[in-house]
Amino acid sequence: MNIVQTGESVTFKCALPSQFSKRDVYWYKQRPGDTLRLIVTVFLRQQKLPTHKFDPEIPDSRWEVNNDEKFSRLTLLKASYSDDGLYHCELSAWTGSIEWSGTYLMVTGKYVLFQPSVSIPVHSGDTATLQCSVLFDSEKMACSEDFSMFWFQAKSNTYPNMIYTEGNKHHECEKKSDSEKSCMFNFSKVVSSSDSGIFYCAVASCGKILFGNGTRLEIVKWIDEQYFLALIFFCSYSTAICTNLISSAPQADGENKNYAALNFSKSKEKRGGKKKQMEPQECFYSEIKV
């Protein structure tokens, strides 16, 4: 197999037997699912210079043919994605014997996948949006608009599982330069407690697949009890004393809510007297979801 980038050249070689009197070399191209298509015929004769003839439907400006005593060489200039396929060499002798050989050509493009490698804290029930973007050369990649996006989730000690595919749909594309374009892919979901883990995006295009770096979703509670216990109220009104009473009561929906009953004692001095009269306690309730 030969793998080249778009715009590069590639040469196919066909080994020739050490002794021959009269042979013809046929070069074919075969796309997956298609029949053989003749590219060029090379005529090899002893004591004569090799000659060749391209098929009328083949643009000979993109091809070069070179031959010596050991090899027949076919060079493809400036490969594009449409050049993907299997290239056959057929050696045909005047005796009727035929020899075949083939090389598969894969033409790839230059594109880059970006995924923020960050940790996102979210609450259960929130909607989290993950993003991936693809930067590519729109002029050199004939299949650049044929992206297929996949999303995978990896939990601790498990292999990634595919959870969503967008096919070849993307949300928005924009030009970065005369030839470069960028496409953004978004994936949104309502988060549950089981969604903690790393989410990877993957893009398949032009016979190639790239994986992102992964974005971690970290499920956090609304408030933890240790934080609630740290809520210390300091009351500075006269000689006030603040007392915290913490209780927890189960709710009908299965969740717990903590209530803090805050008791404030106030002292008020009567006019013209030395005695102090305590006013009735004021009680405030604060609801905190856990």
UniProtKB/TrEMBL annotation:
Subcellular localization(s) per the UniProt record: Cell membrane
Ranges of residues in domain Ig-like: 1-99, 110-203
Pfam family, one: V-set
Keywords annotated in UniProt: Cell membrane, Disulfide bond, Glycoprotein, Immunity, Membrane, Signal
UniProt entry tagged with the keyword Lipid metabolism: no
UniProt xrefs under CDD domains: IgV
One record GO biological process: immune system process
InterPro entries, alphabetized: Ig-like_dom (IPR007110), Ig-like_dom_sf (IPR036179), Ig-like_fold (IPR013783), Ig_sub (IPR003599), Ig_V-set (IPR013106), TCR_complex_component (IPR052051)
GO cellular component: plasma membrane
Gene3D superfamilies: Immunoglobulins (2.60.40.10)
Protein name in the entry: Ig-like domain-containing protein
Naturally occurring in which organism (per UniProt): Poecilia latipinna (sailfin molly)
